[in-house]
C-alpha cells in the first residue's frame, strides 16, 4: 500500500501544477488534495480474463460532451463484491497495449463522481499478468478529467459496465 500512498501524493501535487493540472486556475489556490476511500484489499483481485473476439469491430462510446470515440471490447472479468457477482468489460483503443476500464457503481453521484470512474494500464490498478489473467485493483480507481472541468471530453461508461454493487475504493467525489 506504500505504492498507493505515494501515487496519491504525486497526483495531489500534479493537480496544483499548471499547465498540466485539469483543475481550472480558480480552483487550484484552494485545492487541499483529493479524497479517497481507505485502501480496501477486498477490492483488489488477480483474476482470469475472458479475451473477447476482436472481429466484432469497435463500439462507439459516448463522451461527456456528446462526441463518440471508438473502442474495442478486449476482455471480460467476473469477480465478487460483498458476496455478489459482478462483471466488467475491459476495452482497448485498437492500436495495441492500451487497456481502459470505465465503470459506474451504486456510489456514483453520492460518494463518487456521478458519471463514473476509470482504471487503465497507465497506472497500477489494471495490469495484465500473463496471457489470461489480470490484476484489477479498485483502490486505484480515479475520476476522469471532466469531473474537474467542462473543458475535457471524457468517455462515459457503457451500460454493460454499470455495476449494481458499491465499489468503495479509489477516488471519491470532488467537491472543491
Describe what this molecule looks like in 3D.
With 176 residues, this protein is mostly beta strands. The protein has one domain (2-161). The protein has 2 helices and 8 strands. A hairpin with a 6-residue loop joins strand 4 (84-92) and strand 5 (99-103). The longest helix has 13 residues, at 2-14. The radius of gyration is 16 Å and the shape is globular.
Task: Please sum up the structure shown.
This protein is mostly beta strands.
**What series of H and E elements makes up the topology?**
HHEEEEEEEE
How much β-strand is present in the residues?
Answer: 25-35%
Q: Return Rg in Å.
A: 16 Å
The computed structural class is mainly beta
Q: Tell how many strands the DSSP assignment holds.
A: 8
Please give the alpha-carbon distance between the first and last residues: 26 Å
Roughly how much helix do the residues carry, as a percent range? under 10%
Describe the sheet with the most strands: 8 strands, antiparallel
Task: Name the poorly predicted regions.
Answer: none
Overall geometric form: globular
Write down the domain tally.
1
